[in-house]
Amino acid sequence: MFLDNEEYSKEKSLERCLTYWNPSRTKAWRQMGIDIMIGKRDGYYFWDLDGKKYMNLHLNGGTFNLGHRNPEIIRTLKEAMEEFDIGNHHFGSAARGYLAEKLVKTATPGMQYAVFSSCGGEAVDVAIKSVRYATKRRKIVSLVKCYHGHTGLALGAGDDVFKEKFFSGPGDDSYIQVPMNDPSAMEDALKHEDVAGVIIETIPATYGFPLPEPGYLKKVQDLCKTYGSLYIADEVQTGLMRTGKLWGISHEGVAPDVIVTAKGLSGGIYPIAATIMTKQAGSWVEEFGRGHTGTFGGSELGCVVGGKVMDIVTRPSTVDNVHFLADYLKQGLDRVQALYPDFFTSYTQRGIIFGLRFGVPEGGIKAMKAMCDHGIWAIYARFDPEVVQFKPGLLCTREYCDKLLEKFEMSVAQARREYFGV
Ligand SMILES: Cc1ncc(COP(=O)(O)O)c(C=O)c1O
Fold first, then answer.
1. Residue 168's pLDDT is what?
2. How far is the CA of 346 from the centre of ligand 1 (A)?
3. Model confidence, pTM
4. What is the pLDDT at residue 167?
5. What does the angle CA 29 – CA 120 – CA 275 come to, to the nearest 5 degrees?
6. Is the CB of residue 200 below 6 angstroms from any atom belonging to ligand 1?
7. In angstroms, rounded to a whole number, what is the distance separating the alpha carbons of residues 115 and 281?
8. How far apart are CA 73 and CA 299, in angstroms?
């Protein structure tokens, strides 16, 4: 096997990653006191290569919504491998057609097409290309402190921090950023009627899950309609039932022109992402089918896995569990917050998406480290380091939550003690 092999020891793996994989990223984590190298994984747990066990509350942004190595997903993939492979991206296929229909029919009203790709960034690229083609306009509006991926057009729509060094930022006036929850800034950006599309994470993850104010996203959609722009909902983190509805945007009464989904669609096992579009937004699919393609986008194995993921996340028992978890964890978090209100100062929640605020400088990094010490892995928010992203899985049990809340309380107490010194 792999993980028992001396070649895969923690020391050797760290050394190799520092030398051959990504020295700066590996070192940055170590400087924060985190040197996790994930080895064994099962359900909502993983083990460091040194043997330490963690509860996974990051889930890689929802990639492991259904747990690590979900048995149903693995069974489906094994069965699919008896008959399928990547497939040939020049042709349609049974698996591709099946998943496309499933996504379109379960999406918000008005959707017609699903175009596949291999990661969220590429699916955002497809969304941006599509709205440009459909409107014959070039400009894209996004929110300050958004994150839509590291690929070409997705990177362009994102924060300067990731693009300046690659000469993808300054000088390109086709990307405009406006602050969240500011409809008049949005109107100023759209009123010249030269914007192809607005792309918004329904609840911005890398910004620590600040909630859209009631009515804000609906207002944005109305503005889009007024000024002839299309609305792209980036549901990479908020989709697939994490909010208690299949798509987070449905809480807002918005039927977008485009939905982007990725991460969890893979079941954490086989890469697949999708851009779901209305007939208007996806008009190139009708007129210029070669407009976007990639060998691995819409791999048949990925499509079979994606279909099974859709079945599991829409099952009544899964939906009930998400609602249960949302209530139960809220009660637990309220309890801990009441104990340490000067450190764990507030939190946002929609379904089982939580942004926990530790209202002191870099409080999220301090809390992340303390949680790590207690065997919880939850990542701080890159664009608001007071916040920890706290994202339990759809199928977590009450027993898992009890253990989690116990460890969480100890972590908060420790981080607070370390910060205040008492
Ligand atoms: C909201 C959002 N959009 C897009 C992406 C890009 O997805 P991927 O990493 O699969 O390219 C991410 C990844 O974290 C994300 O959080």
1. 75
2. 25
3. 0.97
4. 77
5. 170
6. no
7. 12
8. 16
Cα angle, residue 389 at apex, residues 357 and 37 outer, rounded to 5°: 130
Does 271 sit in the ligand 1 pocket, CB within 6 Å? no
d(CA 224, CA 186): 9
- Which ligand 1 atom is nearest residue 146's CA? 1
Give residue 235's pLDDT: 98
- Assess whether the C-beta atom of 237 lies below 6 angstroms from ligand 1: yes
Counting atoms of ligand 1 from 1, which one is nearest the CA of 119? 10
At 163 the pLDDT is 86
User: Does ligand 1 have an atom closer than 6 angstroms to the CB of 147?
Assistant: yes
pLDDT at 387: 98
Distance CA 54, CA 69 (A): 15
Note whether 7 and 1 are within 8 A (CB).
no
Nearest CA to ligand 1 atom 4: 148
| Secondary element (H or E) of residue 198 | strand 195-201
Q: How many A from CA of 324 to the centre of ligand 1?
A: 27
Residue 270 CB contacts under 8 Å (≥ 6 apart), including other chains = 77, 299, 301, 302, 305
Q: Which atom of ligand 1 is nearest to the CA of 235?
A: 1
Q: Which amino acid is at 132?
A: R
| Residues β-bridged to residue 275 | 115, 260
Q: Which of 319, 317, 376, 325 is nearest to 55 (CA)?
A: 376
Other residues' Cβ atoms within 10 Å of the Cβ of residue 137: 18
pLDDT in tens, 291-339: 999 999 999 999 999 999 999 999 999 999 999 999 999 999 999 999 9
Residues of the chain predicted below pLDDT 50: none
State if residue 201 touches ligand 1 by the CB under 6 angstroms criterion: yes
* 124 pocket-lining for ligand 1 (C-beta < 6 Å): yes
Alpha carbons 303 and 297: distance in angstroms, whole number: 9
What residue type is 167 in one-letter code?
A: F
What type of residue sits at position 317?
Answer: S
Please tell me the distance between residue 154's alpha carbon and the centre of ligand 1 in angstroms. Answer: 9
